[in-house]
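Is zinc ion placement plausible here? Inputs below.
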Amino acid sequence: MTKPRLVVAVLLVGAMLSGLACDHEKDSAQGQPTPAVVPDTSAPPRNLPPDSGPPPKFDGDRAMQCVQDIVKFGPRPLGSANHKKVENYLLSRLQGDEVENDTFTADTPAGKFPVHNIIAKFPGTKDGIIVVASHYDTNYPLRDTAYVGANDGGSSSAILLGLADQLRSKPRTGYSVWLVWDDAEEAMKPETEMPFLDDSLYGINHLAEKWQADGTLKKIKAFLLADMVGDADLSIERDANSTPWLENVIYEAASRLGYQSHFFERNNQVSDDHIPFMKRGVACADLIDFMYGYNNVFWHTPQDTVDKLSSKSLEIVGAVILETMSILDKMEPLPPK
Ligand SMILES: [Zn+2]
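Reply from A.M.:
I modeled the complex. Tokens:
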């Protein structure tokens, strides 16, 4: 237990430093990333299948085009006409797929709003589901600015569209994959007025509750979350709020593709859409790069635009998710959470 304690200590110091550096609570994350002092070897992946077969291919240029399509609508806060346009855009890209629309009204501190989670389901041959999620809304308090969330919400939503293109192209041998574009992730009030976790994650909380009630939750083998994954200077953090063995599988997948230098240089502890599933005992991993510009300066600003992103970063994250799914398919049995 020595190593985990050391990692926790580093995280605490990081949280204290970030408290000095900025006084607002993070949406999507708490604290600034800290350098990784030791790799987390507390839970090495078990039953890793051999590295076999051709590496997955993911079209980063096509994903970048999707980011551009999404941001072209402008800010897409909850309840806006632009939000509706993005919903329709996502659905138009999923025509012919099995799509579940999870809609409800959220009672938020800013009033009642329609919320629309979009789930595309791609059946596999194995019993069980891998969920890959991304939020697609933009921050409500920034609704009257030019904030379009190219990286925050745009990049990961585009990667999921790219995954859908791959998944529909050939039948899956492995677990079923459900892609979730979750809604109302962002806070409705400025963080100075309400803690993030009390005023966010409306869509994904609803889905986690629903899937717990109808028994779906028990079938979920892994919940992979992508958020802020398009930064041209890509450096995905190891997240202390994620499941260590699943994070290690992601690192293994990245290493097999030669992309490991973009993963886990830093540690972080992130409050993001995976939290409702973590709380319910599902193995989760959050792929997030919460250092968007130095000190995360572009995050939640009108400077979160496509020129900060790269097709290569989208390709790396898309391919690593595909490789992670392929490793999970072959791990028998999957470790408990
Ligand atoms: Zn955000």
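Short version: Residues 2-21 form the longest helix (20 residues).
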